[in-house]
Write a structure and sequence with these properties.
This protein is α/β, with parallel strands linked by helices. The protein is built from 8 helices and 11 strands. It has a 5-stranded parallel beta sheet with strand order 2-1-3-4-5, with helices on both faces. The protein has a 4-stranded antiparallel beta sheet with strand order 6-7-8-9, with helices on one face. It has a two-stranded antiparallel sheet with strand order 10-11. Helix 4 links the parallel strand 4 and strand 5. Helix 2 packs parallel to helix 3.
């Protein structure tokens, strides 16, 4: 699952990023409120962790703008503002949870898991399925015909992207933006390498491949029986 962290304090931002990545989450971070808003409004995330005191555009403005535009991505406010009135204001403005700094990472992780479970239950999409291939978004387990497939974090993110849009050809640019966010070098062959790894895991040993390359266009999850 992909989490956006909008936090301008470098030590906190890095602390949260490292902790979440150790739990196998894909994490995109930014320190600027305006950029954070652009990412949150234009890209797809499963959860947003939002500081309030940000440069250029403050967190409360980001939250209100997103909710006003109809974005329903869960938002967890992470802030040093600790008064009851400030916490209530954050929740009333559209936040799903509010955690006061300083905080223990274990509590942050638990709150993230709770919000993600709640979101998955509400959407009814906690398990994706296509032609005998299943992906559990909560346990992060993939299986084909019941056989467990061990996936690394980016392999999981790519498979999720493909399984939410079976039959649609996804370009390298789309995959780079959705799987790597803004943290990639577009001149590298990282997409080809990742697709190759994922194909070896979900198709090797099966008579009917599911992951196909459309030369010069991109990649698609498609059953061609």
């Amino acid at each position: 699952m992909h989490i956006l962290v909008i936090e301008d304090e470098p030590s906190i931002r890095e602390f949260v990023r490292q902790g979440l990545e150790e739990l196998d989450f894909q994490v995109t971070v930014c320190a600027d409120g305006k950029l954070g808003y652009q990412l949150a409004s234009q890209e797809s995330y499963d959860l947003i962790i939002l500081d309030l005191m940000l440069p250029v555009m403050d967190g409360m403005a980001i939250l209100r703008q997103l909710r006003g535009e109809g974005h329903s991505t869960p938002v967890l406010i992470l802030s040093a503002r600790h008064s009851v009135d400030e916490r209530v204001l954050g929740l009333q403005s559209g936040a799903d949870d509010y955690l006061v700094k300083p905080f223990a990472f274990a509590e942050l992780a638990a709150r993230c898991q709770t919000l993600l479970r709640r979101q998955s239950a509400a959407s009814g999409t906690d398990v994706l399925s296509y032609q005998g291939l299943t992906l559990d978004l909560l346990s992060r387990e993939a299986r084909r015909d019941g056989v467990l497939i061990a996936l690394k974090p980016r392999e999981f993110s790519l498979l999720k992207l493909l399984m939410t849009q079976p039959g649609r050809v996804l370009s390298k640019t789309v995959i780079l933006e959705q799987v790597w966010g803004f943290q990639f070098d577009p001149q590298t062959n990282v997409v080809d390498v990742l697709v190759c790894r994922l194909r070896a895991k979900i198709d090797k040993g099966y008579a009917t491949p599911l992951l196909h390359t459309i030369r010069g266009v991109g990649y698609v999850l498609r059953h061609q029986g």
